[in-house]
Amino acid sequence: MAARRVLYVTAEDHYLYRAGGGALELEGKFSGDDLGITTFREHLLSRPGGLFSVVADLAGEDFHEEQIPFLRGADREAIVQRRLAQRYRDTRLATALSLGEAPSAERRNERLLLASFTNTQQLAPWLDALEEAGARLAGVYSAPLLAPVLAARLGVKGGRALIVTATRAGLRQCYIDNGKLRFARLERTIDMVPQALAMFVRSETHRLAQYLVTLRALPREGAPVQVFVVAPPGQREVFEQALASDARLVFHTVDYAHALQAIKLRKVPEVTRAEALYLHLAAVRAPREQFASRQDRRRYTVWQLQRGVVAAGAVGLAACVLYSGVKGLEMMDMRDRATAQQREARTAAEQYERITAAFPVTQTSSENLKVAVVEFRRIADRSASPEPALVHLSQVLGRFPQVEIDSINWSAGRAGERLTAKPAPSSPAAQKPEAVSDLAVVVEVSGRVNATQRTDYRGITAQVESFAAALATSGYRLVERKLPFDVTSEGTLTGDIGAATDPNDAPRFTIVLARPLP
Hints:
single chain; alpha+beta; 5-stranded mixed sheet; 13 helices; 28% strand; elongated
């Protein structure tokens, strides 16, 4: 990771700090003249590369409020640049901070705070040295631009507040309104005893409040302004005694060690004052607003894009590694399952060999035995048995108690002609002809009808027909039936009704059934 360095610029001397790991380390001190710039160039050449931020703590800052139409994108950028060019002669170190929407009944406007340095030549040679050394400039900040971040870390929740700090450059006072910078000033100081410095802070804070009222940045009547004063190390009690609150200002004294803890800065050089707070924030929590132009920050922008590409590549690589890991686990699982199946196959093969080893010795192969078994099962399936026919006949006879069977003739063989013969018109099989096999089971049933008068030939005929229809179910077909008498189409009554020698003998019938074999 590239080293991050912060150049702290004051009116007399410039200080170069190395920031990282929650600590500040003084790396070099340079005078503000040409000799200091030359020394700074040599220092940069001895340590090429690196990431730099510049924090300017100078007295010559200008703040001016403007209003522009509420726009977005390129139109807003064009108007902002035009207003900066109208306000400042050199716009290299100029910026515009948004203060939100302006209350207006006519049209929607945006409030801007234009900020820059009255003398940009104090910073230009140092920026040129960074450019010549190929350094990546993250931004140029001032202590006021970093004050809103510091205020939030010190516990300022909102409303109007003043942040007062004593830095190497002097007494820095920043006016914050709802988290937005509105005004700032730097008052030069000399070495003072703690009591004198505390009284100086009180007097200058009251002067600033009166000036803000004159600028109409503060209302004459309203809630008191919260003033947060960062006391130098070991001087908190002195500041608390000197800074008495009133109806206009409410003072809150913050110990220097507590301020360092609030911004998570653990180690600072001994000679550093409150500027360490701004330097650390510029390194780790820099705001979006800053003074450097796009041209000065182009190397930093390219570096950010490179980091983005590397980060995207790392994410893609991590995704690929994760995907390959998942696939690897799936492959291991499949390999384990394949191994288990192979083990089961070997166990089954060994069991089969043990079973077959107990078989009697034959003069043929196992394949021939398998074919023989299959053929035997086919022959057994096509072999007929009289048992199903007798079961079917007994079930039908249970529904016809008046029928008495004299004889049953069962046979199996080729019966193609009898199966394809045209059945009787009254037979249900006559209406649904089907293609059947030549092999069939033929059952010839002979019997008589009791409990019916012999002269009632229509009743006897009906009972025989019903019995025949009941038999022609469950796969059986009615092939032939022979009634004791019948009426032909010419209306002649024929049969053996008058030829019987015994008047008590019941009329006889014969029914032939067939069931095709599979």
